Amino acid sequence: MSTARTGRCLLVLAALLVLVVVAAVASVAFGARVVSAAEVVGGLTGTSSEIGAIAVAERLPRTVTALVAGAALGLSGALMQAVTRNPIADPGILGINMGASLAIVIGMAFFGLGSLGHFLWLGIIGGMATAILVYAVGSMGPGGTTPVKLALAGVATTAAMSCAVSAILLPRAQGLSNFRFWQVGGLGRGSWQALATLAPLLILAGLVGLALAQSLNSLALGDEMAVGLGVNVAATRLTAAGAGVVLCATITALTGPIGFVGLMVPHAARMLTTSDHRWLLPLSALGGAGLLTLADVVGRVINRPGEVAVGIITAFVGAPVLIAIARSARVRAL
Asked: pLDDT tens for residues 93-121?
């Protein structure tokens, strides 16, 4: 990669690090009551007033949840786009988020499962089953799998599963309070205990995805070229897809379905820097962390003292982005 492009990647990396820090401070500062940045820093260092300390204690778990969830969704989206060679691939568009949600709702409604550990494994099973279904449907017909066919299969599957979630929850009084959460997602359930439960899988899946960067670069050249370079194409695709599904489904078990982060961030990172996955994957993770945290801040500010679910904010921003990408000439195999 040229020196100029490397310099651009480093510049974007630095900008994203600043974005993440600013978003994290804003997330702790804004809520039903606003505290200053100085009080936030003081609360983190133990030198603040009681208000700053309380704000940090109450809001920091949610902030870290937003950062972790955004990073996982951004990285998951980049992996999905690399595996499918589809610029509009995203865990939400491909139905993985809603598949995980449907499996969790079925477990709650019919089997009485309610712990985060149960949600975690139900989400992974539902996400993987949905990914297989969408890819199978998108491969039907002449021409095999194309970006548009895969996206349409995902959108149709998502709509069907969303209806199934509604059909299961609405008749159940105990499910009404959970209805919105399992439809659009939110970060209000974030806690240190939940993050500790999910951390091993997230770290493992994230490291696996990052380790595949060079192999994914080879896949981008075409299957025949990748084989010639010594890459096991089937194993690389399966492993990368598995890592992406695990990242997405694990986060969905905690936050519910949050869409479009995995679409917008990798696409923007690719436009601003490079298609080299050694840069694209970590930049997507950082960008996702910053974007989702800022979206959560916006959702709390515009409806204070209440809040707008972060999944609604990301959908409001992401839907026009999807339309713009789909209408452009760039909707072709990566």
From this structure: 899 999 999 999 999 889 988 899 999 99
| CB-based contacts of 272, cutoff 8 Å, min separation 6 | 8, 12
Higher per-residue pLDDT: 171 or 137: 137
User: What tokens does 108 get?
Assistant: 């709650």
Q: What are residue 315's phi and psi, to 5 degrees?
A: -70, -40
Which of 245, 229, 295, 13 minimizes the C-alpha distance to 128? Answer: 245
What 8-state DSSP symbol labels residue 1? -
Of 60, 71, 64, the closest CA to residue 203 belongs to: 71
Q: Both tokens of residue 99? A: 């598949």
Alpha helices in the chain (DSSP H): 3-29, 37-45, 50-84, 96-111, 116-138, 147-169, 173-184, 192-211, 213-219, 223-228, 233-255, 261-272, 277-301, 310-327
Q: How far apart are alpha carbons 116 and 253 in whole angstroms?
A: 7
Q: Which two tokens stand for residue 277?
A: 């996955």
Reply yes or no on domain 3-332 having CATH 3.50.50.60.
no
Q: What is the dihedral of CA 46, 289, 131, 156, to 10 degrees?
A: 120
Cα–Cα dist 90/76, whole Å: 8
pTM above 0.90, yes or no: yes
Domain boundaries along the sequence of the chain: 3-332
Residues 6+ away with beta carbon under 8 Å from 334: 81, 82, 85, 86, 87, 220, 275
Q: How far apart are CA 268 and CA 166, in angstroms?
A: 33
Angle at 156 between CA 127 and CA 81, to 5 degrees: 55
pLDDT tens-digit series, residues 1-51: 678 889 999 999 999 999 999 999 999 999 878 888 888 888 777 776 777
> From CA 14, how far away is CA 49, in angstroms rounded?
32
> CA angle, 329 as apex, 234 and 15 as ends, to 5°?
75
